[in-house]
Design goal:
The complex is a heterodimer of chains A (76) and B (298). With 76 residues, chain A is an alpha+beta fold. Chain A contains 4 helices and 2 strands, in the order H-H-H-E-E-H. In chain A, a hairpin with a 2-residue loop joins strand 1 and strand 2. Chain B has 2 domains: 76 residues, ATP synthase, gamma subunit, helix hairpin domain (Helix Hairpins), CATH 1.10.287.80; 195 residues, Pyruvate Kinase, Chain: A, domain 1 (3-Layer(aba) Sandwich), CATH 3.40.1380. Classes of the chains: A alpha+beta (76), B alpha/beta (298).
Chain lengths: 76, 298
């Protein structure tokens, strides 16, 4: 159990993106605007089951939900 | 009263010289039709020209992003090359195919090229699962292989892909319930400004990394390995997204270039047809006037 973020259900990618966001936000104003554009993410996704498309949902929400779920269970 | 009897026949003759199928009375209508057609074609030409200009301005930025991300992906793959990692060929485990397309059309055959490549791969491994990025490829693959689809993403490729997008997609893929022996990412490889090629790249699973012959050269704990796999997946995805994006833009530029050229050709043809028809109408009218005049002289 080396990582505190792993215990709270985050994946390494999420951990990285949170760290990157913090760095971007602590930049000076002029550079921050350019940098924050690189951190934008506005994807939508849908799960498929047996050849049928499921509901559209925001990827950010879906990620947050699944991570909250992973936080409840004991981290692997 | 000869003239009245002759008139329809003359008109028919005038129309027939231009368009043999046209009805006798339709000469004036076809003239207007041709004019309308001309106008609409030149409007289309304007649109395709504008799209071409937009695509060419975007192309530079997309290509720069591509070379950067390619470097990024190659560096990350360097580890696997050093470790001589090979895809596992274990029976019973599934393969995951990630298709890196985009939402927008009007860019030649890049989406259908991807879909064809994926279908070829699905013939070899019929039980592989599919993750599709982008609406266009989703529409094509859901028609033929909807049973294999497990995830689809849209809103991809509106802008230059960011690493945050690649991370989010990689997260969703690693959260998939299935245990995959190998993950193949199919993307359009940028060969040069006019050609591209649908190519699969491999993203390795944990076991594959562990089994690689030169693995002991790196001192990696098992716990870190999961992180490394997730991270390298998003690296590879980012690479594929950026390169696919550059391909799409350059393909769109070429497609729009060709479309503008074709529209130019059509405009030339219709202009000639229009002028000929107009002359034929004028000649027809003159003949009518002369015959009318000579009839009233008698």
């Amino acid at each position: 159990m080396a990582f505190a973020w792993k215990a709270s259900g985050l994946t390494y990618n999420k951990y990285l993106s949170v760290a990157a966001r913090v760095v971007r936000r602590s930049l000076k104003d002029d550079k921050r605007l350019a940098a924050e554009r690189r951190g934008e993410m506005d994807l939508k996704m849908a799960k498929w089951k047996n050849g049928k498309q499921g509901e559209h949902q925001n990827v950010a929400d879906a990620n947050a939900a699944s991570m909250a779920e992973a936080a409840g269970s004991p981290a692997s | 009263m000869l003239s009245r009897a002759v008139r329809p026949a003359l008109k028919a003759g005038a129309a027939a010289s231009v368009r043999p199928v046209a009805a006798p009375a339709a000469t004036y209508a076809t003239l207007r039709e041709i004019e309308q057609r001309l106008k609409s074609i030149s409007n289309i030409e304007k649109i395709t020209k504008t799209m071409k200009i937009v695509a060419s301005t975007k192309l530079n930025r997309a290509q720069r992003a591509m070379t950067e991300s390619r470097q990024y992906g190659k560096t990350s793959n360097n580890v696997f090359e050093q470790a001589e990692t090979k895809p596992l060929e274990s029976e019973g485990k599934k393969t995951l195919i990630v298709v890196s397309g985009s939402d927008k059309g009007l860019c030649g055959g890049i989406h259908s090229g991807l879909s064809k490549q994926v279908r070829r791969m699905l013939v070899e491994t019929p039980d592989a699962d599919l993750v599709v990025l982008g609406e266009k490829c989703k529409a094509q693959l859901s028609r033929s292989n909807s049973k294999n689809l497990v995830l689809s993403f849209s809103n991809v490729g509106k802008n230059i892909p960011t690493f945050a997008e690649a991370q989010a997609i990689a997260d969703q893929i690693s959260l998939l319930p299935g245990d995959y022996a190998s993950i193949k990412i199919v993307y359009n490889k940028f060969v040069n400004a006019t050609s591209y090629e649908a190519t699969p790249i491999e993203a390795f699973s944990e076991e594959a990394i562990k089994e690689s012959p030169n693995f002991s050269a790196f001192e990696i704990d098992d716990e870190v390995l999961t992180n490394f796999r997730e991270y390298s997946l998003s690296n590879t995805l980012f690479w594929a997204l950026a390169e696919g994006h550059a391909c799409e833009i350059s393909a769109r530029r070429n497609a729009m270039d060709n479309a503008s050229k074709n529209a130019g050709d059509m405009i030339g043809k219709y202009q000639i047809l229009y002028n000929r028809t107009r002359q034929a109408v004028i000649t027809g009218e003159l003949v009518e006037i002369i015959t009318g005049a000579s009839a009233s002289e008698e």
